[in-house]
Amino acid sequence: MTLPFRSLTEALTTMRTTPLLAASLLTAVLLGSPAYAQETGEKLEQAKSLFNMGAQLYAARKYPAAIQNFEEAYRLAPRPALLFSIAQAERRHYHETLQVESLRRAIQRYRSYLAQVEQGGRRAEAGQALAELELFAARQAPAASSASAPPALPMRPTLSVMATQVKNARVVVDGRASDEGVFSEEVAPGKHTIKVSADGYLDEEREVVVQSTPLAFDIALRERPAALLFAAPPGAQVSLDGRLIGITPLPSAIEVPPGAHVVSVARNGHSLYATEIELERGESRTIEASLPRTTQRKVAHGLFIGAGASLIAGGV
């Protein structure tokens, strides 16, 4: 069953979803609505990365950086759910800093969200939060709750990098290492070098250009393949998962995806070698297959010698 558009968008803003689930849900939201079909794929991908980065920063209590990522995502792909995310981050930032500007921006974003989502969604939570914040505003100054919100935080050339698919990834930008696998800092406009690494995965390096607005990347790392070596008599056929990969001696190690595999080594007149193996990322393993001669070959060879001796003894 296809869920209504708002049902998917609201799932994104709970801030309790895992980064991978958040990214998957956001993809469904950004790509699944006909009303936004004309937005470019590049914009949608960038909005997804910005939202996902904002969710990570929100969870790490880095609210100003989270707000910048949410605001830029909303600029690229204006969705009500992103308004709710911005309001949530502004509210948390206000509670931490008691800055009136954050309070007013949170009120404005909640109001905008409620104006766009006329029913369902997270109207109840937004309404409750809005009532609470308006009470705080009224206590601070009589006109504060009705005052227009200050402008959003100015957009700065911020670069955010993470790798949500991998735990304990190491992110280095221009030689500076991140903490907790997430890099999000203001940088000078221009070219910057990103390197992301993790145990069991291939390093990913790229050069990016930052301009005047936040830029976010969720880097996908490729698993480091395992390596198989074979010690077997020459002329044997080596198969992996039912597919012939070569004849011994193989010139080099065979790269194999990590996981479960079936390996077999066969040669005419010799016993078949077959085994199931489980390979870790980056593991190197040698398969030793001695391939002893089969019993049938030995019996046939003995019978041939016996028959020859009889012929010699009996004459021609």
Q: Can you give a write-up of this model?
A:
With 316 residues, this protein is an alpha+beta fold. It folds into three domains: 5-140, Tetratricopeptide repeat domain (Serine Threonine Protein Phosphatase 5, Tetratricopeptide repeat), CATH 1.25.40.10; 158-218, Sandwich (Immunoglobulin-like); 226-295, Carboxypeptidase-like, regulatory domain (Immunoglobulin-like), CATH 2.60.40. It has helices at residues 5-12, 19-32, 41-59, 63-76, 80-97, 100-116, 123-140, 295-314; strands at residues 158-162, 170-173, 176-177, 182-186, 190-197, 204-210, 215-218, 226-231, 237-240, 243-247, 254-256, 259-266, 273-279, 284-288. A four-stranded antiparallel sheet has the order 3-2-5-6, with no helix packed on it. A four-stranded antiparallel sheet has the order 10-9-12-13, with no helix packed on it. Strands 4-1-7 form a three-stranded mixed sheet, with helices on one face. Strand 5 (190-197) and strand 6 form a beta hairpin. The radius of gyration is 32 Å and the shape is elongated. Mean pLDDT is 81; it is low at 1-21 and 299-313.
